[in-house]
Design brief:
mainly alpha, globular
């Protein structure tokens, strides 16, 4: 079992810096899509935020697999684990963010509550997604103890 120090070290290494660089690209693309879908096209909270992750995940998978985690194993298993990780992290992050902001910003308009919810959801997603990709989606065969 890993200690708190070992888990904290996962956020202070070169892999995490690469993950953040890939995340900047995904964030620019995905956030633009999400807020345009919500504020310009007037699509729902869930459809707008899900679109962010659908489009961003395609780029994220390719960049994180090859650049960030340098994962070279063949087959569809990493794609399936990646997809499962994205879905779980998305539902967890945005499912938590919405009720939190509904409660904290109860006096504000629905539009403000949901825009802030999407921002909080993005932050939560980054943390959950990094841990999931590192420890599950792109875990190398020799790293099963993580």
């Amino acid at each position: 079992m890993k200690s708190v120090r070992q888990y904290a070290g996962m956020f202070a290494d070169r892999t995490f810096l690469k993950f953040i660089m890939v995340g900047v690209v995904n964030t620019l693309v995905g956030t633009t899509i999400m807020f345009v879908f919500y504020n310009v096209l007037h699509l729902s909270y869930w459809l707008s935020s899900a679109s962010n992750y659908f489009f961003g995940s395609i780029v994220s998978y390719l960049l994180n697999k090859h650049f960030t985690f340098q994962y070279h194993e063949k087959g569809f298993s990493s794609l399936m684990r990646f997809t499962l990780n994205i879905v779980v992290c998305y539902l967890l992050a945005y499912g938590m963010a919405k009720p939190i902001m509904e409660w904290l910003l109860a006096g504000f308009s629905k539009s403000i509550r949901e825009n802030v919810s999407m921002l909080l959801g993005m932050c939560l997603f980054v943390v959950f997604n990094y841990l999931g990709q590192r420890m599950f989606a792109f875990r190398k065969q020799g790293d099963k103890k993580q």
